[in-house]
Specification:
alpha+beta; six-stranded antiparallel beta sheet; 4 helices; 32% helix; globular
Length: 166
């Protein structure tokens, strides 16, 4: 299926939080610094399915799917709000035994990064405009730690790009 793709943000840390690729940060829901996100023109369920497949087809297991949009809708009245934040929103959590081991052998404190998370969402009033991405992990510590975390970031970016059709 052909889709129209527009990269809205990439490695925002390097660009001081500004979006890249012709869209403003506000267009993407103000993508936070340190987050890489891609905007796709497609049905949410298709992008969500592509994201799931991008994970599973690498031999990884999704440990948990967080239904963020559903939770926010369900609890809105409980916290005194009536604002609809997302039309659809999910996060998928998973790990890579190989990359996690490399990262934690380099520095056991890298356990803080596991499991890895990728997200997909669609804003109200913008059907078919779907954002998919991940939070960049800080490449800190020893050279071995930096290298291992860089591999995780590369994996996450590959997954997000695949789901975005890039």
């Amino acid at each position: 299926m052909l889709r129209n793709f527009k990269k809205i943000a990439a490695f925002l840390v390097a660009f001081g939080g500004m979006a890249v690729g012709g869209a403003s940060a506000a267009d993407a829901g103000s993508i936070p610094e340190g987050v890489t996100a891609y905007e796709v023109t497609a049905a949410f369920e298709d992008v969500r399915f592509d994201l799931e497949n991008a994970i599973v087809n690498r031999g990884l297991v999704i440990d948990y799917v967080s239904h963020i949009g559903t939770m926010l809708d369900r609890t809105a009245a409980d916290v005194g709000s009536d604002k609809k934040i997302f039309e659809n929103a999910e996060a998928m959590l998973f790990c890579s035994a190989d990359l996690s081991r490399k990262a934690m052998e380099a520095d056991p404190a890298n356990i803080a990064y596991c499991p890895y998370t990728v997200f997909v969402y669609e804003m109200p009033g913008k059907p078919g405009q779907v954002t998919v991405g991940f939070r960049n992990l800080s490449e800190t510590g020893s050279d071995a730690s930096k290298s291992a975390i860089a591999e995780v970031n590369k994996l996450l970016d590959g997954i997000a790009k695949e789901a975005a059709g890039e």
